[in-house]
């Protein structure tokens, strides 16, 4: 499908419009409401509980944002739902709760987290949850297998791949050199059936996103834009920004 106009119409608040200093934590109902109030689109992260419910939460581990510890995926829906986020009364919302709050008022860009183990269970559950949602929503992932799965399980929703050109951060050490090269050069492009590409701001002028933009006509969504210089770069090389720490 052609990328819908709303995908690039309004800047996207990274994990909602959050400000920890003010007590508004990322990926919470409060952050979603703050973004809606300002008219921004929202980006969120989702992953599965041990019993297959999809929650809005970024980290693999619970320690940074809650007083619990351990891997997110080993906790049940009930256990996760009972947790409060540090210093707030916010809890970790399910995707269903998040959608109920947004209610189509602004676009939602949903990043499906992956453990790169071949499982597409998160995609399947997300597809079930959003099946009856009437608001604008797009799906994306760092994992080509997950993106390909969205084409099958949620074919009517725009889909994108999140990539970068080097994968030199230690968080990517688990990837093989071949995987890094394949991801950086979009070797799974045909299988993913992309409607947009989300690319790391540092690597935005790399040939891969620019060829995708110029030759394939794919809109480029740049992440995460945090400074004035990055915004200027994104204005030149991208069609959309995922921003944090300022109001565009």
Short description:
This protein is α/β, with parallel strands linked by helices and 248 residues long. It has helices at 6-9, 29-38, 77-81, 95-102, 121-130, 144-153, 177-184, 189-192, 207-215, 228-237; strands spanning 12-13, 41-48, 54-56, 108-112, 137-141, 159-163, 196-200, 220-225, 240-243. The protein has 10 helices and 9 strands.
Brief descriptors of the model:
248 residues, alpha/beta, 10 helices
Describe the structure.
The structure is a single chain. The protein has 248 residues and is an alpha/beta fold. It has a single domain (6-243), classed as Phosphatidylinositol (PI) phosphodiesterase (TIM Barrel), CATH 3.20.20. The chain is built from ten helices and nine strands. An eight-stranded parallel barrel has the order 1-2-4-5-6-7-8-9, surrounded by five helices. The radius of gyration is 17 Å and the shape is globular. The mean pLDDT is 97.
Biggest beta sheet summary: 8 strands, parallel, barrel
CATH superfamily: Phosphatidylinositol (PI) phosphodiesterase
Fraction of residues in H or I helices: 25-40%
Please tell me what the overall shape is. globular
Order of helices and strands: HEHEEHHEHEHEHHEHEHE
Instruction: Write down the Rg.
Output: 17 Å
- Poorly predicted runs are none
Average pLDDT: 97
CATH secondary-structure class: Alpha Beta
Discrete helix count: 10
Total of domains: 1
**Helix vs. strand class:** alpha/beta
Number of strands: 9
């Amino acid at each position: 499908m052609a990328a819908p106009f709303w995908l690039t119409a309004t800047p996207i608040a990274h994990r909602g419009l959050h400000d920890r200093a003010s007590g508004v934590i990322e990926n919470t109902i409060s952050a979603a409401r703050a973004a809606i109030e300002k008219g921004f689109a929202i980006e969120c992260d989702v992953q599965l509980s041990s019993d297959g419910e999809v929650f809005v939460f970024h980290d693999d581990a619970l320690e940074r944002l809650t007083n619990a510890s351990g891997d997110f995926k080993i906790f049940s829906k009930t256990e996760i739902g009972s947790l409060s986020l540090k210093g707030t009364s916010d809890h970790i919302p399910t995707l269903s709760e998040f959608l109920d709050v947004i209610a189509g008022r602004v676009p939602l860009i949903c990043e499906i987290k992956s453990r790169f183990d071949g499982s597409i269970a998160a995609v399947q559950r997300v597809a079930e949850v959003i099946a009856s949602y009437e608001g604008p929503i797009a799906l994306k992932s760092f994992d080509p297998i997950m993106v390909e799965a969205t084409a099958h399980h949620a074919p009517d929703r725009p889909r994108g791949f999140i990539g970068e050109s080097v994968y030199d951060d230690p968080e990517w050490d688990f990837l093989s050199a071949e995987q890094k090269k394949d991801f950086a050069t979009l070797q799974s492009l045909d299988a993913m059936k992309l409607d947009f590409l989300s690319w790391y701001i540092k690597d935005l002028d790399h040939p891969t996103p620019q060829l995708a933009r110029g030759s394939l006509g794919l809109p480029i969504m740049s992440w995460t834009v945090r400074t004035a210089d990055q915004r200027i770069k994104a204005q030149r090389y991208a069609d959309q920004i995922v921003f944090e720490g300022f109001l565009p």
